[in-house]
Design goal:
mainly alpha, Rhomboid-like fold, 0% strand
Length: 205
């Protein structure tokens, strides 16, 4: 037998497709094979989360400036600035100003209201963006904001504003993801739940 044949057989074995029967699975970095059922992480800076935070802060500054720029208690703006900038006013929505069902979610009633939503968005928005990606995170936030405004318009005659429904939509998506992939997530992923309880409790204040 020629000496070339064993060398050729060795080279063919190195080029063998791992998907062939009996072949060992390829390993990912770290020496552990990746379970295809495990959730995929979208690594990178949370651009969508920080963009939403920036938009909410700019809208809050607009409320404050239109209201006169003074500090009068905990209120962020005034009833006049809220109406002018797009709060959900049922009578105005009924007259055809449907854009208020979108803009109302980017305004807030008080500095505390704004701070709590920014904190929740910073924590839960980043996690949703990590698990779902930037585009889906934005879609979840905007759709739940608009859906919440529509439900509020249909069920109550009260004037309303705030991004709380968008935040709750992100929390709902995160809870669903954790429930579906709980066996693949690290234990520290559950550390967000105490903060979740605080955020939910603050809605009743």
């Amino acid at each position: 037998m020629s000496l070339v044949e064993p060398e050729r057989e060795h080279r063919d074995a190195d080029n063998r497709d791992p998907s062939e029967e009996g072949a060992a699975p390829r390993e990912v970095s770290g020496g552990a094979s990746r379970d295809p059922r495990a959730p995929r992480l979208r690594l990178g800076p949370p651009v969508a989360t920080w963009s939403l935070i920036l938009v909410l802060v700019l809208c809050a500054l607009a409320q404050w400036l239109v209201a006169g720029g003074g500090f009068q208690g905990a209120e962020l703006g005034s009833i006049y600035s809220d109406w002018a900038l797009g709060a959900k006013v049922p009578s105005l929505v009924a007259s055809g100003e449907y854009w208020r069902l979108i803009t109302a979610s980017f305004l807030h009633g008080s500095w505390l209201h704004l701070a709590l939503n920014l904190l929740a968005l910073l924590v839960f928005g980043r996690m949703v963006e990590l698990f779902f990606g930037r585009t889906r995170m934005l879609v979840i936030f905007v759709l739940t904001c608009v859906s919440g405004a529509v439900v509020s318009y249909l069920l109550t005659p009260r004037i309303s504003l705030g991004a709380s429904t968008g935040v709750m939509g992100l929390i709902g998506a995160l809870v669903m993801h954790h429930f579906k992939y709980r066996r693949y997530l690290p234990e520290r992923a559950a550390q967000v739940y105490p903060l979740l309880l605080i955020i939910l409790s603050s809605r009743s204040l």
